[in-house]
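Usage

Read records sequentially. Each one opens with the input sequence:
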Amino acid sequence: MDTDREAVFQHLRDLFGRIVSTLDDLPKRRRLLDEYFRLDGEIPDIVGTLIEVDDQRFPLEWVCADNADPDRRILYIHGGSWVSGSFAGYRALASRISKAAGAAVLLVDYRLAPEHRFPAGLDDCVEAFLWMLGHGPDGPADARNAFICGDSAGGNLALATLLRLQAGQKKLPDAVLALSPATDFTAASPSLQTNAGLDPIIHPMVYSALQPVYLGDADPRDPFASPIFGDFSQAPPILLQVGSAEVLLDDSVRLAEHAREQGCEVELQVWEGMPHVFQGFAPRLADASRALEKIGAFVRQHSIAR
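and closes with the structure output:
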C-alpha cells in the first residue's frame, strides 16, 4: 500500500474509533463525520464559488467552479448514514465535481434521522431536484441538463430520488451517479462479511444498526429505502463507483446487475483497494482524482446540447 493510501486508511480507522466512542452523543458524532475528508487535519480546498439559496424551506447551496455551465446542473446528496452530513463536510468534493463536469452543483441540506425518519429526507431530495429544474445559480432559469449524484447514504437517496420521480411520472434526470451507495437494507450483499477485514470505516452490521434509526417501522424491501428492489426499466444511465475494499462493494455490483437485467444502461467502476467514498480525498489520492475525471466525462457524455 502506497504512503498516501495508507494515510487515508489510518485516518479512517482513527475516525471510526472516535465515532464508536460517541454513539450516544449524536451532535458530537455529526461533528466528527464532517471530518471524514480532513486528512491530517487539513480542510480540503474549495475550488469554486459558494452561492446560498434563500427561498426554500430547507437549506440549499450552489457550488460552482470557474468553468461551470449554469444550465448544466447536478443535485448532490451528501452521505452520513442518513443521520449526519452537512455543507461544511462536502463543499470541497462538490467543487471538484463541478470543475470536472463543468456543471453547477446544488447541495441539499435534507432532513436527518432520527429526528426525521424515512421518507422525510427523500422527500426533500425530490423537492430539491424539481426546484433545480427551474432554478440555477443565477436565479430562475430552466436547466438544459440535470443530474443527480450522491455518496453512501446520499447514493441511496440519489437512486431513491430517481425511483420516486419515475413513480410520480415527473421529469427524470439525464443520468444518475452514485458513489459507494448503500442499496439494500436487507443486508444480503456477501461483501458485508467478505470485506469486513478490509474496510476501515464501515462496520458489517451497518444496516442492522441504522434500520431502526432511519427506517423505523418501514419495510426494508421498500424500493425507496432499498433501491436494489426498484424498477429501473425506464431509468436513465447510471454510473456506480465503488472501492474494492468496501463492505458495500456488492451493494453496487448487485444493483448494477439488477438494473442491467431491466434494460438500464449502467457503468460500474470498481476501484482496486479504494475505501468508502474515496473520491473526497482528491488530490491526495491519485485514484480519487482519476475517479473525478471519470465522473466529469460521464456527465459530459450524457449532457444534451440544445
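Summary fields computed downstream for this record:
- Residues 282 and 289 are 5 Å apart (CA to CA).
- The longest helix spans residues 3-20.
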